[in-house]
Amino acid sequence: MAVQEARQSAAGGVPNGAHEGGCSCGDCPHGARAGHRRAVAAFLLKRDEFAAGQGLPAAVAHSASASRQWVSEELTQSAEAVAERGRAEGAAWLARLWRRTAYVVWAAVVVLLLVQALTAIGAGWTAARTAGLVAALVVAASLTAASWFHRARGGVLAPVIGEDNRLSTSRAVAAAWVLFVAFAVLVLVGRLAAASDSRERDALISGLELARGAGVVTVLAVVCAIAVLVRRVVGLRVLGQRLQKVRADRPRAADLLTDDSGRGTFADIQYVVIGAVALLFAGVRLARRPDQLPDLPWGLAVVVLVSAATYVAGKYAEGGRPVILSVVRSREAGDLDGPIRTGDDIEIRGAGFVPPGAQRADRLSRMVVRIGPVNVHVPLVPVAGGFSNPTDEVLTVPVPADVEPGRVEVQVVTAAGAETNRYAIDVTD
């Protein structure tokens, strides 16, 4: 479908910059989305054509190295256009997200009202139901106001979006517990304001004692501390080049359960699942006993703490610095064996060359190999459906003529800016 769309655009089906149907400008959300889709389609068409050996000019077709360099430059320019469109679409998506988050918040208030109305049939409407509804209205109004002030950064989701423009699992779990505890306290405040009997007021005040909600308070303290700790750990590991982070175009709900490359991670999944189950239990306890903080059993609280410890351990274990294991002369079929000379291709073998989330062409094109004092950009070699170079374990680059014969050091700089170890090779005349 992407290839067909690109061919239709190339045939002049919709003029660039038109605001009708297939708008491709960045002035409106629909235009940013359409422009990004069109740029992606054009890039995929160009990549597949080059992979099939089509579209090469006659001036470079006679030389394998010249044609590879020309193809890489063309794909890099097209990938940069895709990345620019992607950033425009991400900004437009965030700008309109705050309305959606506000709608979701008020929809939750309506659901709460319906549940209270249905459960009140037969039992009657109580002061606790009124306090719960008022507390929900206060929380919803506060979130809506905060969403408007942060409308350019995703509305309500702004505090849980990390520096890499992805949803942070630790911040999302902590924010959920903070909102729940605030709602529970507001329920007690509402009941206390409506209470006319002194004994009822004393009972409500005693419901805020630590002995009643020690489990909830402990879990709240731990998840908030983990949100701060994980941010510090990730920041230090990135600065120490022990973790590679690449910025995303926009946050996605799947970020809560996956790593930067989109693969599900056990540490994140179990933390979210166990936290959600414990939060649901605490919500039921609050509905049953609205005169005190939810008394989360210590057994369940310990389960949440174990889950949190597993999540933090997973954050310490993930990532790693890219490393070069070996460098050899790249040999094609029919070539004679020999030493590395200027003009030859070298194959760099190692691990961690492509950071998670950097599989796109615009990120791959930012990779650089230092051969002595010369910086060599890693060429993009297209194949059907992707690229054969570069990969996470192997890079192939030419040795430029500016490299002096003798012993030189090779070092890879990834798209995230991390540097590998230096590996010495011998270059002969």
Walkthrough of the structure:
Helix content is 53%, strand content 12%. With 429 residues, it is α+β, with helices and mostly antiparallel strands. The strands form 3 sheets. It has a 5-stranded mixed sheet, with no helix packed on it. The protein has a 3-stranded antiparallel sheet with strand order 1-3-8, with no helix packed on it. The longest helix is centred in the first third of the chain and has 56 residues, at 64-119. It starts with a helix and ends with a strand.
Topology, pairings included?
Blueprint: H1 2-10, H2 29-51, H3 58-61, H4 64-119, H5 127-149, H6 169-194, H7 198-206, H8 210-239, H9 266-288, H10 298-317, E1 323-329, E2 340-341, E3 345-351, H11 361-364, E4 368-371, E5 374-377, E6 381-383, E7 386-389, E8 394-398, E9 406-413, E10 423-428
Parallel strand pairs: 2-10
Antiparallel strand pairs: 1-3, 3-8, 4-5, 4-9, 6-7, 9-10
Helix pairs in contact: 1-2, 2-4, 4-5, 5-6, 6-8, 6-9, 8-10, 9-10
Nearest-angstrom radius of gyration? Answer: 29 Å
Approximate shape? elongated
Helicity level: 40-55%
Question: Largest beta sheet, briefly?
Answer: 5 strands, mixed
Strand content: 5-15%
Assembly annotation:
single chain
Secondary-structure element string: HHHHHHHHHHEEEHEEEEEEE
Q: What value does the average pLDDT take?
A: 85
Tally the helices.
Answer: 11
Low-confidence residue ranges: 1-22
Distance between the termini: 50 Å
The main sheet orders its strands as: 2-10-9-4-5
The secondary-structure class comes to: alpha+beta
Q: Tell me the number of strands.
A: 10
